[in-house]
Specification:
single chain; 465 residues; alpha/beta; two-stranded parallel sheet; 43% helix
Length: 465
């Protein structure tokens, strides 16, 4: 928005057959602050349909383009970014330099300089929170550009701010654009703004140094995520029979308890709850219940993993994964016999064997959630964070309840829809709680944390007890 893009545009316009038309899709003006139109298209025409101006740019004589910033008309990005006949030039700059430059321009009102004697100098304060938001916006925009170009088989011409002073780089850029034109010197009209050292431009430079030193520039503290992206699993959603409540269950959550509560709330049977939604029928239900509330329930990762283990691996019959159990036994050391073992009474597969197998299962989960096994990452043991992110593709839950505070969370939901009394909840929401209590210790806790680090961080879970 300041010297860099202005200088790039001025140099591009020095080449025969190339025309950069300014900020053609700036939401506040068209082309330049005082211009009435671009290629005969006025602001109101562009606002009603940006494709009109795109077509004029394509049809104009020579090679025409425009500057586009991350806060410009998003509709244009969808049009231009996916069009392989539209060349993309990506101008980058040190984000601290660009942030301070932007703050100075905002303070002085000077966005372009052609006479150094008119330069306006002003120190500006550095606000670390504002800078982090600025940086996050730029990074998200650049990531979107890169990913879209990759997926559509395109590439861009990347130019750093410092490259703009190299005439051969400019000539190389225009050759890349396919234009047979050449210049021997750069535009001399525009002047570098605020060439002073950073310490002279920032009022609280010492605080700025300290704040930037604390920033994790390379994102070293992140917890990597290799889980597959998921959809919202809408067919599993459950709506109350009469109340405007929608339950968005997670596969290994306390779902039976919640559905019993929903049925009791409307004094019906569980079979009377509404299930089997498609996106179409769920939207119809939402339109018919305009004051609806949606909720889901997360549970401690140890309980989550143990439930998946008991229901999908240890148990036999409907809902269990016999083939995966055999693979886990053969490849991953999860020694669970076929047939639905009951560790409380089984002589061979007793509670000690159950603990050993569960620890091996947690080790498998750590590898499975890191995309290091050939076994699918089933929704029964996927991270709860990834499942909620999948739900968000359709709609966010109004309430993310916790199993440990479920009674109070459901009471508040009931109050929000006008209920003064609430059906009772059983004291135990985990049918495998006694089994887990018998095998739980610090070793189990640490193994679960290794597997579900993202859930521990995202939801603030501590040790189970």
């Amino acid at each position: 928005m300041r010297t860099g893009s202005n200088f790039l545009e001025a140099n591009l316009n020095m080449f025969d057959g190339v025309a950069c038309l300014g900020e053609a899709f700036n939401p506040h003006f068209i082309g330049y602050p005082n211009s009435a139109d671009v290629l005969g298209v006025k602001l109101d025409q562009r606002e009603s349909d940006p494709q009109i101006l795109i077509e004029h740019v394509k049809e104009a004589q020579g090679l025409n383009g425009f500057r586009f910033f991350n806060d410009h008309d998003a509709r244009v990005l969808d049009i231009a970014l996916t069009d392989p006949r539209c060349a993309k030039i990506v101008l980058t700059r040190n984000p601290v330099d660009s942030f301070v430059s932007w703050k100075i321009a905002s303070a002085t009102g000077q966005w372009k300089l052609t006479n150094a004697t008119h330069a306006k100098i002003q120190q500006v304060p550095f606000d670390v929170a504002e800078f982090e938001a600025h940086l996050a916006g730029i990074q998200a925009f650049q990531t979107r550009l890169l990913n879209t170009l990759q997926r559509s088989g395109q590439t861009a011409f990347y130019v750093a701010y410092e490259d703009l002073q190299d005439v051969e780089v400019m000539n190389g850029l225009v050759r890349w654009l396919g234009v047979d034109s050449h210049i021997t010197s750069l535009n001399k009209k525009l002047k570098k703004q605020n060439p002073e050292p950073m310490a002279d431009k920032v009022a609280n430079f010492g605080q700025m140094e300290q704040a930037l030193a604390r920033m994790d520039r390379f994102n070293l503290s992140r917890t990597p995520n290799f889980e597959p992206r998921r959809g919202p699993l809408i067919p599993s959603y459950v709506a109350a029979a009469g109340s405007p409540l929608l339950f968005m269950p997670l596969k290994s959550g306390p779902n039976a308890v919640v559905q019993d509560w929903m049925a009791a709330l409307d004094q019906v049977k569980v079979v009377d709850l509404l299930t089997g939604f498609s996106q179409k029928t769920l939207r119809e239900w939402q339109r018919a219940h305009q004051s609806h509330l949606s909720f889901t329930v997360v549970r401690h990762p140890v309980v989550w993993a143990h439930t998946a283990f008991c229901e999908r691996i240890v148990a036999g019959g409907s809902g269990s994964f016999a083939e995966i159990r055999a693979t886990l036994r053969k490849v991953h050391g999860v020694d669970v016999p076929d047939g639905g073992a009951v560790p409380e009474t089984d002589v061979v597969y007793n509670m000690q064997a159950h603990r050993t197998a569960f620890l091996a299962f947690l080790k498998f989960l750590r590898n499975n959630l890191s995309a290091q096994t050939g076994v699918r990452t089933d929704a029964a043991w996927a991270s709860q964070l990834s499942l909620l992110q999948g739900m968000a593709d359709f709609g966010l839950a109004d309430v993310i309840a916790r199993e440990t505070t479920l009674r109070g969370d459901l009471a508040r939901l009931a109050g929000q829809i006008g209920r003064t009394t609430m059906p009772p909840l059983p004291d135990a929401t985990d049918p495998y709680a006694a089994r887990l209590a018998a095998i739980y210790d610090d070793v189990v806790e640490m193994a679960a944390r290794d597997a579900y680090g993202r859930d521990y961080e995202a939801f603030g879970f501590g040790p189970m007890r």
